[in-house]
Fold:
Amino acid sequence: MSALTPQSDMPTPTTDKITQAAMETIYLCKFRVSMDGEWLCLRELDDISLTPDPEPTHEDPNYLMANERMNLMNMAKLSIKGLIESALNLGRTLDSDYAPLQQFFVVMEHCLKHGLKAKKTFLGQNKSFWGPLELVEKLVPEAAEITASVKDLPGLKTPVGRGRAWLRLALMQKKLSEYMKALINRKDLLSEFYEPNALMMEEEGAIIAGLLVGLNVIDANFCMKGEDLDSQVGVIDFSMYLKDGNSTKGSEGDGQITAILDQKNYVEELNRHLSATVNNLQAKVDALEKSNTKLTEELAVANNRIITLQEEMERVKEESSYILESSRKATKDRSADGQALTEARKQLKEETQLRLDVEKELEAQIGMRQEMELAMKMLEKDVCEKQDALVALRQQLDDLRALKHELSFKLQSSDMGVKQKSELNSRLEEKTNQMAATIKQLEQRLRQAEKDRQLALQDNRLFKQEFGDKINSLQLEVEELSRQRSHLELELRRERDRWSHSHQRSQESKKGPKNWLRQDGKLKVQEENAQLKQSLRENSVLPHRSPSSTQEEQEQLSGPGHAEICQLCQEEDSRSQRKVSPGLELPSPTPGYCEFPLLFLVQSQIPAGDVFLEMSLCRLLCP
Structure:
């Protein structure tokens, strides 16, 4: 572009022409095309003026790389903006043949190649952006499906083709911006593949990744099978962006798409007309076949008629020859056969006329047959051509149906996925509402339980404050009573042993057992009665049981035939088990004690009813 800048101060016609050409072409958008290795970019021409100036010298590589990054970012903005506007204006799914979409992939390829380190191999140096794209599946697990699909494609043999296929699949998945952001955020991994001042390592890469979010509104559909991605030339077509200012952006693309849609509608209409024409021709062929069969039948009839006419003509010839001979003979004898000769001549004329008519009819039938054969050949040729066209149209129709079926299947699968996600979302919302209600109930119960616990603690404190001293005093009294009880039990055992020895002596002596028992037992009972009365006075300070519970226990213990356990001797007691003499009435015992004391009192003629006396006798008399 330095050649466009004149070296002298005086303007010349040549410089004016060059300036005008530059104004009409490149300076329309203030960009210029430059080559740097294997990539194309746009450089801003802010440093170049149309007036003669000395050439700027920007030999700094950092400045060049920064300028290249800025130009690539601007080209990415233009391509993404144009692609979104054209897609929204068309309102349909884009395919791989759409020119702005192809240019977008070319620009993305140049952005990924900018500042890429060359890998040395046996065949030389190789620059490929497939290596950085393979890292995406490690950063985003969802990209593993795309990488596996790219590796499984049979037609891809080079890393460049795999990278192009990866970009197309990511755009179809509407996650290209997400993958690029995840890749750009890991500068430590990208440093293995890019130079420090490359586009992917600077902030321009993050800006481009943010611009790619707008492409999520585009529905793209690519058929990767059969597409040669390895040998495509990645050159940016700047003519799409160098347009007249008065023309709206994307008008050419809209016109092309409109023309393609019109052509598609025309082809569909032509297909319908051709199918109708084929049906009509098929009906005509059927009619011609029927007429051909009729004509062949008529031809066979005509041939038979011709044969019969030829036979008749031969017969007429023979008759005419015979008539001529007879006429010759008759001429000799004119006088006799004049009238017969005239009749023979008339008959000869009629036969010759009939022969001529038959020959004319035969010639007409032969000509008609030839015309029919020629028409049949032309019809067969036309039918073959129509059948070939019909086969091609049917093939196109099958392809369109397959594409329609595939698109409908994808639409159904996407609808089902949306329905499943919506159902899952509704179920999760219901579960969330249920959990929230449950949490509220549990919180209410927790607050109620906390209130109850506080009340219980308060009651416990009040109870301890009111009854703490009484409980301690009662515990001390219970301990004292237990000690007295153990002391009394020990004394009762001693008395029992003493009584058993005295009883044995009384049995041996057999002298007045009743009087001895009365006197001895009465003395002991009186002593025991005094001790028990004293213990009863001491036990009166203990809390007594309720009268109702005491009455219930007495009713249970006084039931008929109920076997009771004596509280002192631990022996079962029942009136059914004791043998009482018939004339002896035994009063009801004290509840909880056996009948031995009562029996002793009755036999000794001592009045019953003294509880302490019965208890002491039980301790003394029970074995």
